[in-house]
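Dear Dr. H.,

I hope your travels went smoothly. While you were away I took the liberty of generating a structure for the chain from your last submission, since the lab meeting agenda had it listed for discussion. I wanted you to have the full record in hand beforehand rather than looking at slides cold. The sequence, exactly as received, is reproduced here:
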Amino acid sequence: MKNSGQEESDFSFPSRKHRIRKYKDFKAFFENTGVINTGVINTSVLNTSVLNTGVLNTSFGWVRFRENNLGYLRIAVSVSKKVSKKSTLRNRLRRICSELLRLKKNELKGYDVWVFIKTPVENIKDELNKAISKIHST
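The corresponding predicted structure, in token form, is as follows:
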């Protein structure tokens, strides 16, 4: 059993506390966002709220993010069946996205990030890294 004050291992991510699971948490991504075009990637950013919320449209789908005031990163990764009918390929994409977010978890502390993949893409790592750098800069 872990002590509550004990430092968490880098390999424990994504544990249950790092996952977005509740309907109200997913619904919060859609509240009060406005769209800002920044060239290649369209960015939606909330200007009127205390919480930083936004959407990054990418070639593979979109990445939604918002501040969570928890002090740690929480993630959700969704992959459409349009990407592949084979669950093994969809699960591989989920694992790749989770691993990239695990490696960036110190940069994204205090954010909820939802990655939705709806079209097949050759190099998801580069695309997701670009989107993550945009989140970190907002």
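Two observations you may find useful: Confidence is low (pLDDT under 50) at residues 1-6, 34-50. The first strand starts at residue 34 and ends at 38.

With kind regards,
E. W.
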